[in-house]
Sequence to fold (386 residues):
Amino acid sequence: MKYISLLGATGSIGQQTADVVRAHPDQFKIVALSAGKNIELVRTYIQEFEPKLVSVQTKEDYHVLKSEFFSKKDIEFMYGDEGLTAVAVYDQATILVNAVIGSVGLYPTLQAIKAKKDIAIANKETLVTAGHLVINEAKKAGVRLLPVDSEHSAIFQALQGEKEKNIERLVITASGGSFRDRTREELKGVTVEEALNHPNWSMGAKITVDSASMMNKGLEVIEAHWLFDLPYDKIDVLLHKESIIHSMVEFHDSSVIAQLGTPDMRVPIQYALTYPDRLPLVGRKRLNLADAGILHFSDMDFTRYPCLQFAYKAGKMGGTMTTVLNAANEAAVAAFLSGKVSFLEIETLIEKALNQHSVITLPDLETIQEVDLMTRQYIESLVKDR
Ligand SMILES: NC(=O)C1=CN([C@@H]2O[C@H](COP(=O)(O)OP(=O)(O)OC[C@H]3O[C@@H](n4cnc5c(N)ncnc54)[C@H](OP(=O)(O)O)[C@@H]3O)[C@@H](O)[C@H]2O)C=CC1
Ligand SMILES: CC(=O)[C@@H](O)[C@H](O)COP(=O)(O)O
Ligand SMILES: [Mn+2]
Fold:
């Protein structure tokens, strides 16, 4: 039995993790969970999974739940950053699934590592903002970081039994996102609703906008750099609009190993939870390549997708540059989602934030948190009064 603490339980990955647990009740149990503001779903989870620790974002929701479930004396309720960290390090959990969105996941991740928890990591922003801290701490503590992001799970699976020295390059596939059939000219005036219409995956709002701007692939390149310890010139991106090949590894002898599957995040979530074993896929659609028909591939167009250029550049510069990239992107996407800026302004804002920053090498946690906050404030100052 694996005892799971789940950060971001009410989100897209969180809900699909709950599905995996439902499919294998003899294998998995959720003992602690955190949510943001969706307390309606938290109520359902409490009845269904009977977790021992529940954390929500606000003090108000904490009081609501505490009084509603006052008869359940064996459930502890918490809130805010403290609650998030308490869930991450919960002592009865054997593995943490980190499915929270954004760099708010960094501190709980570092604490979970210190508490010697293996981590199934979906929360890519944590690796982008402070990959060196997370990887170094995980190595020191001897804990495993198991990728959940579909591309990184694919690479991880392709690398099983292989030697790192034989890797020629990683090829991360990209669907192209909601606007892949539009020119840059046609991106002027696109709506939030259109941006949220991903062709292949049903995901949370922020990552869906990232897919449309190609920043998702930029974050994934940086995530791959840290997870697989490879330089940026060995990490390529290939457009593949069907999202059937989730990514590939090319070896020195020219062999390429790819992982394929229908676009369903339950597969990488479950693999991260069962690694190095596998479990049957209960009630899932299997891949039928004859039905899939022709698969398409094309080179990445960096002029069409400047966010990917920004990510490679920031990644190569290293230090706090990726913290700025991530924080500026989080703030700019939030501004787009709330209707304050246009889709194309996301890129402009990120570029401005990168240009005004003087990189700090090997930043510690405090520096990263400071740069993250200052970058958000900088973007907010650019979009205020809109
Ligand atoms: N969705 C997907 O298919 C994939 C996602 N990922 C990555 O996984 C992570 C999660 O993505 P996704 O599930 O789509 O995101 P969602 O937006 O769907 O879910 C985010 C979760 O985090 C919670 N949350 C948000 N802000 C806070 C906060 N300040 N404090 C506490 N909890 C908070 C939300 O709570 P609530 O809803 O209750 O407010 C929700 O549970 C991201 O890093 C994403 O890049 C990677 C690959 C695929
Ligand atoms: C499911 C998943 O892992 C997402 O990160 C996915 O990769 C988004 O698709 P694109 O970014 O390729 O559009
Ligand atoms: Mn992905």
